[in-house]
Amino acid sequence: MADVDTDTLQRWLRVFAASVAEHKDELTALDAAIGDADHGANMDRGMQAVVDGLAATPADPAALFKQTGMTLVKSVGGASGPLYGTLFLRMAPATGGAASLDPETFAKALRAGLEGVVARGKAEVGEKTMVDALTPALDALDAALGSGQSLADALRAASAAADEGRDGTTPIVARKGRASYLGERSAGHQDPGATSAALLVAAAATAVAEQGAA
Amino acid sequence: MKKLLNDPANLVAESLRGVERAHPELRVDHENRIVYRADAPVSGKVGLLSGGGSGHEPAHAGFVGPGMLDAVCAGEVFTSPVPDQMTEATKKIDGGAGVLHLVWNYTGDVMNFDMAAELAAAETDTEVQAVVMNDDVAVEDSLFTAGRRGTGAAIAVEKIVGAAAEQGRSLSELADLARRVNDSSRSMGMALTSCTVPAKGSPTFDLPDDEIEIGIGIHGEPGRRRVPLASAHDIAEMLVDPILADRDFTGGEGVFVFVNGMGATPNLELYLMYNEIAALLDKAGIVPVRTLVGPYVTSLDMAGCLVSITRFDDEMLRLWDAPVATSGLRWGM
């Protein structure tokens, strides 16, 4: 199957931006319950800035990831800015400067991004954060690619795992971020960061499936 | 939502225009949303930088000026500013003696200031140190939380360290002093109502007329527990008892007591609260030597109050009394 080219990666970012815009109020409502009611607005502002910058994007994936990461760090603020920004910034060197990414390299870059998020946020699985959606998603992606599935199918599996991880944050008592201030009262609410992270994985599945269909 | 607005998206930008017009002694970098002293950088003086989300006015810009901060970065409402702003501000106030970042302990603020310090180290030869302020006893400081929030202690830290910086003290000395004032402070807040973030347009949480939140932060985040509305006398106990249980405030020169309004509570009620708090301190053998009563670290239009107590030693007391000229605090000059 075809490698992931910059057109597909740009489509990933556009689909994610549209998805964040569509779910903006939902993300903000989830954040209002256990945080400070700004996750939807902040992510929407950041992803609009990313999409606005796509016109001027250099051709290779590393440059695209770097530009995306810097834009998110500059424009989102809060904790989501450094976390999503670091995710993309760490993906850049993991591409090895390739003009397009084979499935394994794409998965490796995503893994490097997740490791950056974990290092920046000092969060582990089970603390009610975006890591709870991204970790099972990338585990599922690696497993599916390892068993010979296409990238499109593997990303579908990753997206399903991210959704499951997101749903799994609901009963967890938060240990990171503003939600942790609530202690036991944070249980019973789905984590907004895990929710936007699941949208990011779903957008990758959509963008790659469209490349396959094109 | 009934607010004085043109467009919620322009609230912070337009408010900074107003700060610039109202205070010619300050400079505003609108692109980077930095408010800084007109005389920055002050040669040979350590620059003091703080900042955070908007919605806490007069914090943070209200504490920029001689005797206090050199610059602050303004974020969106309740959202941390970003590393580029902090790096640019650091450059503006570097008078050759280094820059101290005074960071309110919130996950986003800490991460963004961390990234800013990394960028500043890569781009400039300015020496940067950071002190994180975390005084809120409502949050248990453990592996299970993001740590105690920075709330009322920042006023004492920024004022005292600001005065010491004017004396020409070194970056390391000022960082140590900031940690000492922070460690000597404890705070606890409560909300009578939620607050409305203009971009959202409705209250952040629902609080029935007959209930209050104890242990709130300064961002409209709900508190630790919800209890039935009580008398000011009982509420004062709910705030002061956990503060006194967390630290010994006896000895030294006495304490600094800060009764902070959350934005929508009149000073009439805040002074009534101070009366209750002073009686509790008296019973505990704790002597207030300085006080501050009023809205200084607000949470938009939230009603409620936050009590912050700092044990003063003689040096802190002297530095607190030193001249300051900001729009939020002004005496001795």
Automatic annotation (TrEMBL), chain A:
<dbReference type="InterPro" id="IPR004007">
    <property type="entry name" value="DhaL_dom"/>
</dbReference>
<keyword id="KW-0808">Transferase</keyword>
<dbReference type="GO" id="GO:0005829">
    <property type="term" value="C:cytosol"/>
</dbReference>
<dbReference type="InterPro" id="IPR012737">
    <property type="entry name" value="DhaK_L_YcgS"/>
</dbReference>
<protein>
    <submittedName>
        <fullName>Dihydroxyacetone kinase DhaL subunit</fullName>
    </submittedName>
</protein>
<dbReference type="GO" id="GO:0019563">
    <property type="term" value="P:glycerol catabolic process"/>
</dbReference>
<feature type="domain" description="DhaL">
    <location>
        <begin position="7"/>
        <end position="206"/>
    </location>
</feature>
<dbReference type="Pfam" id="PF02734">
    <property type="entry name" value="Dak2"/>
</dbReference>
<dbReference type="GO" id="GO:0004371">
    <property type="term" value="F:glycerone kinase activity"/>
</dbReference>
<dbReference type="InterPro" id="IPR050861">
    <property type="entry name" value="Dihydroxyacetone_Kinase"/>
</dbReference>
<dbReference type="InterPro" id="IPR036117">
    <property type="entry name" value="DhaL_dom_sf"/>
</dbReference>
<keyword id="KW-0418">Kinase</keyword>
From TrEMBL, chain B:
<keyword id="KW-0418">Kinase</keyword>
<dbReference type="GO" id="GO:0005829">
    <property type="term" value="C:cytosol"/>
</dbReference>
<dbReference type="InterPro" id="IPR050861">
    <property type="entry name" value="Dihydroxyacetone_Kinase"/>
</dbReference>
<dbReference type="GO" id="GO:0005524">
    <property type="term" value="F:ATP binding"/>
</dbReference>
<dbReference type="Pfam" id="PF02733">
    <property type="entry name" value="Dak1"/>
</dbReference>
<dbReference type="InterPro" id="IPR004006">
    <property type="entry name" value="DhaK_dom"/>
</dbReference>
<keyword id="KW-0808">Transferase</keyword>
<keyword id="KW-0547">Nucleotide-binding</keyword>
<protein>
    <submittedName>
        <fullName>Dihydroxyacetone kinase DhaK subunit</fullName>
    </submittedName>
</protein>
<dbReference type="InterPro" id="IPR012736">
    <property type="entry name" value="DhaK_1"/>
</dbReference>
<dbReference type="GO" id="GO:0019563">
    <property type="term" value="P:glycerol catabolic process"/>
</dbReference>
<feature type="domain" description="DhaK">
    <location>
        <begin position="7"/>
        <end position="331"/>
    </location>
</feature>
<dbReference type="GO" id="GO:0004371">
    <property type="term" value="F:glycerone kinase activity"/>
</dbReference>
<keyword id="KW-0067">ATP-binding</keyword>
